[in-house]
TrEMBL record:
Signal peptide from the UniProt entry: none
Places the protein is found: Cytoplasm
Assembly mode: Monomer.
KW Coiled coil (keyword) present: no
Name of this chain's protein: Arginine--tRNA ligase
Keyword entries, A-Z: Aminoacyl-tRNA synthetase, ATP-binding, Cytoplasm, Ligase, Nucleotide-binding, Protein biosynthesis
Catalytic activity: tRNA(Arg) + L-arginine + ATP = L-arginyl-tRNA(Arg) + AMP + diphosphate
Enzyme Commission number: 6.1.1.19
Similarity annotation: Belongs to the class-I aminoacyl-tRNA synthetase family.
Residues covered by the Arginyl tRNA synthetase N-terminal domain: 5-83
Gene: argS
Residue stretches making up the DALR anticodon binding domain: 449-562
Record organism: Halalkalibacter kiskunsagensis
């Protein structure tokens, strides 16, 4: 039910100088609940009509009559309407119960494709906190995009190519050993990489060796390829452990290496378009006019770069997925890189480059400092997640010792806590990492929302709830009304969250719904046997539907019991 649209329609009947959609854009929520449910400010009309907004508000308020709006009043320069609680609540409950999981579906993306590049860790390096954020945010945006009707391609653009592989090959051949790599791939490969850099400080010829091994790799040398493939496979096995814990999947793992044989075409095109210039032996695209440093395409030794592969990948993706939007969920430290890549594509004449978007995010902090996985300070992410699950299990064991599937629920709660803690913050902000905070069952946490959902489920179970026999009437008391108003907002929140690529909109909304429902539950005896019992049960059911679906959009499971 699009109440805002309906209100706009009614107002537009009496207004000639604004279109219905202009009116709709102006409609807002009154500052205080007691001022009404929808407000139309008359300032723009006042400018056009050269009358005071107060006078216009009075006139309009008198004219509007519709069964869904109980009263319409002028409040200074605003026309405020109070919805007819009886009719609206009945309708909204029936809609949510009928649409169930589909409630909140938005049609904006139907028939359109969107490519989402996220997670994208680097082979032979630890899965960093930044990759965790990218994974969690990217996965949520993917699910939200699907809810908005888009066909989504989830791409893990693995960092599996580049000069670092030359270094790794040299280091492995000099100091490495196969069984260590097999046992502990990431740690061992990282140690080799670090050793390479320490040794290279006193022995710069190592750098030359590494360059020549990377060139061999780019040319398809068998030994180089075999080692590369092995490092890649072993690292991927480690990454999959994390994806399994987070329950995240991808449609493609075509990383940087995939574009190795496709880059010639990019370079050729750049050459034909006369976009390449030489700078200190390297080939670059000059971006002085745009006030940016040049975009490096080819090094003096002929090796390609990160940007060359991203240019090639964008073209490949457009040709294969015909996207309307292609988004890159990558930390803000890469903003310059994406600006350069997008600009070069525009210079190449690709009009679809407008649809490319970098979706940046902030750091994860520990005690105010950036949490790093570099050098010795490796925080093994897998351990962090396992610890969250163990802590969740402890608190479940004290809260609900008889719970049957404790292990499974602990995983849902522990992982959910980590994801929610990340997503409740606007993505550009830094996030302070604290397992204790994120696992609390009260406050603005994932477990709080999950717990609210489970509590609502248990009310339904007690009542032997049977949806088919429900006879839903309207609910007009204020506690129900506040919950219902929140539930009504779900589709709008989903749409906003998608257009801003901001899952925090949904996370915050779920906290609101939970708080409103818990207030309701504290004030209203749901299971009283009177003529409104079934309507109240419908409300409780509607809350479970919205909480569960909202959590799903964030990549979090909602157990029925916990
Ligand atoms: N592997 C890169 C990193 O860890 C992120 C890749 C992001 N995606 C892209 N198409 N550049 O920094």
């Amino acid at each position: 039910m699009k109440l805002k649209r309906l209100y706009a329609e009614e107002i537009a009947l009496h207004v000639t100088s604004l279109s219905q959609s202009e009116v709709e854009q102006l409609i807002e929520k009154p500052k205080f609940e007691e001022q009404g449910d929808l407000a139309f400010p008359c300032f723009s009309l006042a400018k056009i009509l050269k009358k005071s907004p107060q006078a216009i508000a009075l006139e309009l308020a008198n004219k509007i009559q519709h069964p869904l709006f109980e009263t319409v009043v002028a409040n200074g320069p605003y026309v405020n309407s109070f919805l007819n609680k009886q009719t609206v609540s009945k309708e909204i409950l029936e809609t949510i119960l009928m649409e169930d999981k589909n409630y909140g579906f938005v049609q904006m993306g139907e028939g359109k494709n969107i490519v989402i590049d996220f997670s994208s860790p680097n082979i032979a390096k630890p899965f960093s906190m930044g990759h965790l954020r990218s994974t969690v945010i990217g996965n949520a945006i993917s699910t939200i995009a699907q809810k908005c009707g888009y066909t989504v391609k989830k791409i893990n653009h693995l960092g599996d190519w580049g000069t670092q592989f030359g270094k790794l090959i040299v280091a492995y051949k000099k100091w490495g050993n196969a069984s260590n790599v097999k046992e502990n791939p990431i740690e061992e490969l990282l140690a080799l990489y670090v050793k390479f850099h320490t040794e290279a400080e006193s022995n710069p010829s190592l750098e030359d060796e590494a360059r020549s091994w990377f060139l061999k790799l780019e040319e398809g040398n068998e030994e180089a390829l075999a080692l590369w493939k092995w490092f890649r496979d072993e690292s991927l096995k480690e990454f999959f452990k994390i994806y399994e814990l987070l329950d995240v999947t991808f449609d493609s793992y075509q990383g940087e290496a995939f574009y190795n044989d496709k880059m010639d075409r990019t370079i050729e095109q750049l050459t034909i378009l006369q976009l390449l210039t030489e700078s200190e032996g390297a080939e670059v695209v000059d971006l002085t006019e745009e006030n940016l440093p040049p975009c490096l395409i080819k090094k003096s030794d002929g090796a390609t770069l990160y940007a060359t592969r991203d240019l090639t990948a964008a073209v490949y993706r457009y040709e294969n997925y015909n996207f309307e939007q292609a988004i890159y969920v990558v930390g803000h430290e890469q903003s310059l890189h994406f600006k350069q890549v997008f600009l070069v594509l525009e210079k190449m004449g690709y009009s679809w480059a407008k649809g490319l978007k970098h979706i940046p995010f902030g750091f994860i902090l520990k005690d105010g400092k950036k949490m790093s996985t570099r050098k010795g300070k490796v925080v093994l992410l897998e351990e962090v997640i396992t610890e969250a699950i163990a802590l969740a299990k402890l608190s479940i064991a004290t809260k609900n010792p008889d719970l049957e599937n404790k292990e499974e629920v602990a995983k849902m709660v522990g992982v959910g806590a980590i994801i929610f803690h990340d997503l409740k913050n606007e993505r550009q902000n830094n996030v302070e990492f604290s397992l204790n905070d994120m696992l609390r069952f009260e406050g603005t946490t994932g477990p709080y929302v999950q717990y609210t959902h489970a509590r609502a489920c248990s009310i339904l179970e007690k009542a032997k709830y049977n949806e088919k026999s429900l006879n839903v009437d309207g609910l007009t008391d204020s506690h129900s009304w506040f919950v219902l108003k929140r539930l009504m907002e779900f589709p709008v929140v989903i749409e906003k969250s998608f257009s801003q690529h901001e899952p925090s909109q949904i996370a915050k909304y779920l906290i609101d719904v939970s708080q409103e429902f818990n207030k309701y539950y504290a004030h209203v005896k749901v299971l009283t046997d009177d003529h409104l019992l079934e309507s109240r049960l419908a409300l409780v059911k509607a809350v479970t539907i919205v909480l569960k679906e909202g959590l799903r959009l964030l990549g979090i499971k909602a157990p029925d019991k916990m």
